[in-house]
Design goal:
Elements: H1 8-14, H2 26-38, E1 42-43, E2 47-51, E3 54-62, E4 68-73, E5 79-82, E6 86-89, E7 101-105, E8 108-112, H3 121-129, E9 134-139, H4 146-161, E10 164-169, E11 185-187, E12 193-196, H5 211-219, H6 222-225, H7 236-239
Parallel strand pairs: 8-9, 9-10
Antiparallel strand pairs: 1-3, 2-3, 3-4, 5-6, 7-8, 10-11, 11-12
Length: 241
C-alpha cells in the first residue's frame, strides 16, 4: 500500500482504476514508464484498486517494455484479533481476490502473493507446482507478528518448496497508525538468508542463481518423495479447465 497512508479511511480515497490506466491509475502508469525506460521487470508492491464497485489490495507486475504482465489481487485478507495487541479487519474495506498469480518474466517465472498470503503454504505449493522459480510477497507485518513470523514464514515457504522468496516491506514509521516491522528480505531455496534489511528505508541488491534450484532439489528430492497415495494438493483452477 505504497501510494496511500496505511489507514482504512485512506484506502478508498487513494484507490485507482488499474484497468482504465492513464490518469485513472497514476501509480501504475509511473511503474510502467520506469520499467520501460530502464528495461527492467518490476513487481510493484501493492496499491488499493477500485473495480466494479469493489476494492482490492492489488500487486501489478510490469515487463521490461512497460507492459502489464500480471495483476494479483490479494487472496487472503488480513482479519485477525489478538486481544491487547492488534485487531484488524481488512475485509471491512477490501474484497478477496479469486485468482492465484504466476507470471513469466525476463527474470524467471514468479508467483505473487501479498502480505497475509504468505501464511498459506498451499498457495506457495501451487506456485511451485506451476513451475515458479521465485515467490514475491510485498507486505507489512506489524510489530506483534513481525518479530515472530515474518522471517520464519519466508524461510519456511522457500525451504518447503525449494525456491527463492523475496519480500518487500514498508519501513517502520512510529508516527503511523499502523507500525510495520520492516525487514525486506531475500531467501534462498535452502532457507538461507541471502540479503535483508533492518526497519529503516533501504535498498537491497542481490544475485539470484536459478541453477541452485536443481541442485537443492537433487540434494533433497522432496517432490519424488511425497506420498501422493496418501495426500495431494488440488489445484482447483487447473482442475476446472
Amino acid at each position: 500500500m505504497w501510494n496511500t497512508p496505511y489507514a482504512r479511511g485512506s484506502f478508498r480515497a487513494f484507490a485507482e482504476d488499474i484497468d482504465a490506466g492513464g490518469d485513472a491509475s497514476p501509480s501504475t502508469a509511473m511503474l510502467s514508464d520506469v520499467s520501460k525506460r530502464l528495461g527492467i521487470t518490476i513487481v510493484g508492491g501493492s496499491i488499493p484498486e477500485k473495480s466494479g464497485g469493489r476494492f482490492y489490495n492489488t500487486c501489478c507486475v510490469f515487463g521490461s517494455h512497460g507492459e502489464l504482465l500480471a495483476k494479483h489481487r490479494k487472496i487472503h485478507l488480513f482479519d485477525i484479533d489478538i486481544p491487547g495487541k492488534i485487531t484488524y479487519m481488512e475485509s471491512r474495506t477490501f474484497t478477496a481476490g479469486e485468482t492465484p498469480t504466476v507470471v513469466d518474466t525476463d527474470v524467471g517465472r514468479i508467483g505473487i502473493g501479498i502480505c497475509y498470503d504468505i501464511r498459506f503454504q498451499e498457495l506457495a505449493m501451487m506456485y511451485a507446482a506451476r513451475g515458479a522459480h521465485l515467490l514475491c510477497y510485498p507486505g507489512a507485518f506489524n510489530m506483534t507478528t513481525g518479530p515472530l513470523h515474518w522471517e520464519l514464514l519466508q524461510r519456511a515457504r522457500a525451504t518447503d518448496n525449494q525456491l527463492y522468496v523475496a519480500t518487500c516491506s514498508t519501513a517502520r514509521d512510529y508516527g503511523s497508525c499502523y507500525v510495520a516491522w520492516g525487514h525486506s528480505t531475500l531467501v534462498g531455496p535452502f532457507g538461507e538468508i541471502l540479503a535483508t534489511t533492518e526497519h529503516e528505508e533501504a535498498i537491497i541488491i542481490a544475485e539470484i542463481d536459478y541453477s541452485f534450484l536443481d541442485q537443492r532439489r537433487s540434494n533433497l528430492p522432496l517432490n519424488k518423495q511425497r506420498r501422493g497415495d496418501l495426500y495431494q494438493l488440488v489445484d482447483i483452477q487447473r482442475l476446472n479447465k
